[in-house]
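Now for one record.
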Amino acid sequence: MAMVIQEVKHDISHIETVNERINNFLSKDNFNKLQGIMRTIQVQAGNHLFWEGEQVDKMYYIQSGRVKLRTSSESGKEFLLSIKEEGSLLGEIGGFNNALYYSYRAEVSENAEIGVILMSDLKKLMYEFGNFAVEFMSWIGWSQRVTQNKLYDFLFYDKTGALASTIIKLTTTYGVKCAEGILISIELTNKDFGDFIGTSRESVNRVLNAWKREGVIEMIDRKIVIRRLDYLYDICDCVNHTH
């Protein structure tokens, strides 16, 4: 089980990897420039890098560890927006002249080493090096597309379609080929999946159990193995064409 699945993100136009490394957008020289303005800190699991409503004055580069991005509705419903790992850059860019506030929080779920970047230093870097600014803008564009894809799931899919889409997205980051199919190498609970798509753990459990009976997935060591990826794509494609 050594080969990571990368090509699946191209099979449906709106499916895009949720955990792209920032150095995939920056040249080696520009990535070194970004690292040059980082201050490294150690953060223990259970702590937060930032909270909803907090002003955006820093960005965070995950050097190691894992961070979950979460938000809550006014009614108190929890949403898991994304799970970020090594190589991910966290933060928002909404213009350097106006105050921007986080609409979500970043919870460190595994002990992490984090590079902290002051927005004032990033601004100087972008002003000084035009090619850095252009490459960095490509990351901003990708981040916006990922957010739009998340909204796409909520707007155009029912819960079954949203769950299928979420699992497909997870294969682009955590999918590993194995004899049984494609293993999602990160362990997620049914509550995590429910938080991803804004539904209850019980609803996720019903859908996953139905897929198990139909041979679409199975569970190995509390991790999902997808046996029929085409089935999940068909769900997304059918729902997509009904709108």
